[in-house]
Amino acid sequence: MALVALVIVIKLFYVQVVSDTYKTSADSNSQRKEVIYPSRGLIYDRNGKLLVSNQAVYDIMIIPREVHEFDSVDFCNTVGIDMPTLRYYFSNLHRDIRRHRTSIYKSSVFIKQLSSERYAMLQEKLYKMPGFYGQRRTLRKYEYPVAAHVLGYVGEVNEGIINKNSYYEQGDYIGISGIESSFEEYLRGQKGINYLMVDVLGLVKGHVQDGALDTVAISGKDLTLSLDVELQEYGERLMRGKTGSIVAIKPSTGEILCMVSAPSYDPSLLIGRDRSVNFPILSNDPAKPLFNRAIQAWYPPGSTFKTINALIGLGEGIITPTTRYPCNFGYTVGRFHMGCHGHFSPLDLRLAIQHSCNGYFAAEFRAILDNKKFANCHEALDVWKDHLVRFGLGYKLGIDIANENRGFVPNANYYDKVKGKGWNSLGVVSLSIGQGELLLTPIQLANVAATIANRGWFYTPHVVHHIEGEEIDSLYRTKRETGIPAEYFDVIQDGMEAAVWGADGGTAHGAQLKDIRVCGKTGTAQNPHGKDHSIFMSFAPRENPEIAISVYVENGGFGATWAVPIGGLMIEKYLNGEISQERQWVEKRILDAEINAGQ
């Protein structure tokens, strides 16, 4: 009897003190903990136009222990599902209960993201369906079908995220990519909780302790982006039927005015219940619409890179603006020959940029690497790389959008490994014209254009202009200097302006705009997988520049063929607000063109 009494006492102690099973059961019969999800912060463009807002949806919650017989046909008709789907939902619920992922006493999501219209119909019938209730949520609503790669998308958290961050629980949503991811902590807000008293039918009778335990949800902070949505929309129109990117930056601030990656997609495809259907389609598309080429793709910069090599030569005192080199349809040393198009020879630096002379820059690059101020070619190449790093190349710039790529700038150790230690300047001369192993991202090239426009400095490119009640990171308010004296940029700007406006020819005449001093440099990057890439970098106007831009059109051939007219149209659209009548034929040609990137 003593032993039995002891067992009973221990069991009572466990039930009443240690275990919360019966307390949870009792509380669930009289109380309901309702999470109040905050509205995510709104997103605006630089001119105050609303880009991303919120729309109300409802999750249908279930407390398994309270569910009794109900009219399942009426339930299915009301929420818009069929009977096999309802059985599938209950099957998942039973599986989660068996695996202890869900408690029969606590609520969990049964059906996600029911529209406001359907929930309104269901709400009138919930009293006949014990164990079910609705919980208000918000989904993103995209006001424009553009800028998907910048804005990003929101998705449900997984177990990995829940384990890393205690804020999130099963069924919560989080920014997955773009601005939605980078600024998640600002956008998400703070959840609130209501403690409600309910009767046996699950009907709410009031708040526990008159709401003393409740907490209020705090909406997320609004963001104002530096994007100009009209310019973004126009850029995406120009790039339809093409593969590549457009990046435009305001040189004086580093603000990104547009970031186009083509092909793209409508961001509305990845919200709500349609996301599970559309995401696999987009992921498996061979054109890779989810891939943000503007910050992730690596390309050779081609002849646009000649401007940087010239600045390094000037900065190191190896050439001057009047230094001349010959070009006999290219650069020839022994059996080695690097071709070039026909033009007069010899040329000074301004003319070499204007006519994009391969011979000039091959000779100038070798003059850098073989100069006696350096101990050897290895030391000279590392000094060369250090200059590129100060231009923001070879490493991530640190933009405020996730998944930026770093590109690639080789150093002496790299060539020691792939060529052996006996390599020399002739063996790497392809770097002089932006080929070889050198790779840049489109945003890095746009930043180079902004740096030249500023005559030697830049702000780290960024897309968030303002955070409600906050300052943007100091990284985006700190000037970064190249270390090359400002006066050396004058001749580079002279050459770039002559490339557009030169009476004796130039590679970028297609970017001429009435009454606007456009400076530009074309590039044609060799592509081992098909036709060359068409490249253009530019800024305008020359004095007090308002826009710097890079354009890549994959498999577009010469830079002047596609990238130059696209860049010119973008600059004209931004500075003038419209395309002049005399240039509308150029616009039509670009809009009608389709370039197969696989050819």
Describe the protein in words:
This protein has two domains: 196 residues, Penicillin-binding protein 2a (Domain 2); 347 residues, Beta-lactamase, CATH 3.40.710.10. It is 33% helix and 19% strand. Strands 2, 3, 4, 5, 10 and 16 form a six-stranded mixed sheet that branches. With 599 residues, the protein is of the alpha+beta class.
| CATH superfamily descriptor of the largest domain | DD-peptidase/beta-lactamase superfamily
Counting copies of identical and different chains, the oligomeric state is single chain
- CATH topology descriptor of the largest domain: Beta-lactamase
Major beta-sheet overview: 6 strands, mixed
Kindly provide the radius of gyration, computed on alpha-carbon positions and rounded to a whole number of angstroms: 31 Å
**CATH architectural group of the largest domain:** 3-Layer(aba) Sandwich
Number of strands: 20
Cα separation of the termini: 91 Å
Query: How big a fraction of the residues is strand?
Result: 15-25%
Number of domains: 2
Structural class comes to: alpha+beta
CATH class of the largest domain: Alpha Beta
Q: Name the helicity range.
A: 25-40%
Instruction: Tell me the overall shape.
Output: elongated
Unreliable spans are: none
